Amino acid sequence: MTEHIRAARLAETIAQHIQTMILEGVLRPGEKLNPERELAETLGVSRPSLRDGLALLEQKGLLVTGRSGTIVARFLSTLSDPLAALLADDERVAADYFEYRLSIEPHATALAARRATDPDREAIRACLDRMIAAHRCEDPSDESESDVALHRCVYEAAHNVLLLHIMTVLSDLMRKNIFYNREQLYRRAGVRDALLAQHIALGEAVIAADPIAAEQAAALHVRFTEATINDLRMDELRHAAALRRIDRRDLVAGAAKG
Asked: Residue 236 and residue 14: Cα distance in Å, rounded?
């Protein structure tokens, strides 16, 4: 009986440890855990106790186990998927998104500058290095992905788990182009250089533990992105209007051709 109680407590301890890593963003939705043998050795526990601990997290909906192994559940998709469908066709979404980011992101970046640990700073530095290297490539895809990764590093450095998960949901929506087309943004003339400079300023301010500079850099970045997206949309509207003028000949009797 005593051994059974100890085993149950150990399983709960294991589950709590892994749950904390999921909460803190150490283990991310969709990531596959190491095989049971390796995971047990890493945690210094027996495989039966580990198995019981993982089962507890499966019951909570935080892990999913199948033939391919154990994966961190995409628990945020129950929020992000319906939200994507709800927001996809609403013209107000982009403006509301930038308004929200402007109210949250500068403060979050200032928090990161105050709270970042050495490992946080190393992660931000590594992300900046990847971004600078990707900037040399003609295809902006890798740089765009580094953009998302850098912002996640900053949210993690803020050490506010609620902020981290909310902004993760927004990042997932952004990847689906709900708010704007990121590829289109990066392909606009001069924008890649401006964004790189802004990201470097933002990351360096966090690394330097300068919350005022970090907050200002984040605000500038959000405002610049919003202004650029607005310019792109106006260009699209003007282009569409010009095409409609050309195509009027198909609608109006006697309209001049050419």
From this structure: 54
Do 202 and 240 belong to one domain? yes
pLDDT surpassing 50 at residue 1: no
**Contacts for 75-79: CB closer than 8 Å, 24+ residues apart:** 75/29, 76/29, 76/165, 76/168, 76/169, 76/172, 77/29, 77/172, 79/169
Do 150 and 179 fall within a single domain?
A: yes
The answer to whether position 253 is within a domain reads no
Q: Is the pLDDT of residue 206 over 50?
A: yes
258 band by pLDDT with thresholds 50, 70 and 90: low
241-250 residue pLDDT tens? 777 777 666 6
Q: What is the pTM of this model?
A: 0.81
Q: What is the CATH number of the domain that holds 172?
A: 1.20.120.530
Range of the domain at 201: 78-246
Is residue 96 domain-shared with residue 212, that is, in the same domain? yes
Give 98-142 pLDDT, tens digit per residue.
999 999 999 999 999 999 999 999 999 999 999 999 999 988 889
- Structure-token pair, residue 7: 């085993």
Same-domain check for residues 227 and 109? yes
Q: Are 201 and 193 in contact (CB under 8 A)?
A: no
H or E segment at 69? strand 69-72
Give me the number of domains the chain comprises.
2
